[in-house]
Amino acid sequence: MQIETSCGAIVWRKNANVFEFLILRRRDNSVWETPKGHVKLGESESDTAKRELNEELGFENVVLEDGFREIFEYVSSRGVKRRFILFLTPHQKLNLSKEHDKFEWVSTGELSKYYEHEDIINIYKSAEKFLKKKKLLFPSS
């Protein structure tokens, strides 16, 4: 079975006492997703994630949270195994690319309005748990 691997990152911010996560709506099919893209030949997973954050959101000098790496897999309608490797990064000023036409900041409780796969929702919940465990006390944004 053919495998396509994409890497990206869950972008987070703390708003009051709630962790919120950035989701993007694709311009071509209106599907909500996290910023990610295909791994280029010779590129590491983390380098792919950083490149995609720059291309899709305009982020610079991306810092990925140490110790967070999650994988989401499924078989597409074309019979291709899709593998998404997701890291975690704090937000920066957004400069949305033409690939997406809308973004939202959502809590984990709101994700089911945007995603149908419970596995991807669970990755966001894992990210929230990771952040709470680290007791990150960054200022509200």
Walkthrough of the structure:
The protein is an alpha+beta fold. The chain has one domain: Nucleoside Triphosphate Pyrophosphohydrolase (Alpha-Beta Complex). 21% of the residues lie in helices and 35% in strands. It has 2 helices and 7 strands; from the N terminus they run E-E-E-E-H-E-E-E-H. Strands 1, 2, 3, 4, 5, 6 and 7 form a 7-stranded mixed beta sheet that branches. It is globular, with a radius of gyration of 15 Å. The model has no long low-confidence stretch (mean pLDDT 92).
The tally of strands reads 7
Q: Mean of the pLDDT scores?
A: 92
CATH architecture: Alpha-Beta Complex
The CATH superfamily title? Nucleoside Triphosphate Pyrophosphohydrolase
